[in-house]
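Annex B. Sample input.
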Amino acid sequence: MDSTFKISVIVATYNWPEALKLCLASLISQTDINYEIIVADDGSKPPTKEVISEMSANSHLSIKHLWQEDDGCRKTRILNSGIQASSGSYLIFIDGDCIAQPDFIAQHRKLAQKDFLVTGSRILLSKKITQELLTHKTWDFSKFKSQIVKFRLGGDINKVLQLIIKRGDGKWRHFSRFVWRRIKGCNISCWKADALEIGGFDGTLIGWAHEDADFVFRLEHSGVSRKSGSWATEVLHLFHQVRDQSLNHESIERLRAKIKLMSQSVKVR
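Annex B, continued. Sample output.
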């Protein structure tokens, strides 16, 4: 594993400081040591800044906080600000409602490869377990992991084997073509240079806009191949009500049209 290149972890957040505190606690206690954390804040109120300041003061890491005015869901624009502000050559994107395993960054580093991006997956937590975790003052992955069988039997977690079994790299991870399946914006990594080459995320996408699938498609179209991060990089996704999806159909059709148009052109690499 090459530990020489620096990794920038970009955390997207919006007005859920309790969840962000868990997310940052899990990122601060990573086994990898060569990384930075950038919080990409899409207009949260002061409590979010207070959490970031508290976590930064009690950590060996300096956490960068990027904030933009709340003008509707403009996640793509604040993520692009995070890309520009990053000092690492490799980027990991995670959402502030997700908790990372202690080797989350290390596993992404193992899968990092020139001309490749990685799309990881998530493990869903129930409302009950989420509410319990949000009351904790600290995050203890070992304690959580010791209870996963109980959680699974109680229907409070949808997967457990991925927290126990870690599989290495290999061609079995490679996608031969673009597919929508398993693209989660809460768990994606790529080289910064590749992200910059395609102009980052599409800043015109607002709301529930499948900006993650759009980002992955454009990276693949530019010649970057895709790996699966499953069985290595899973994050724990805290339960929350599904946000406004009124633009879902429009967003899907827009992306399909873009895919159709761009697929008719030749890849640049």
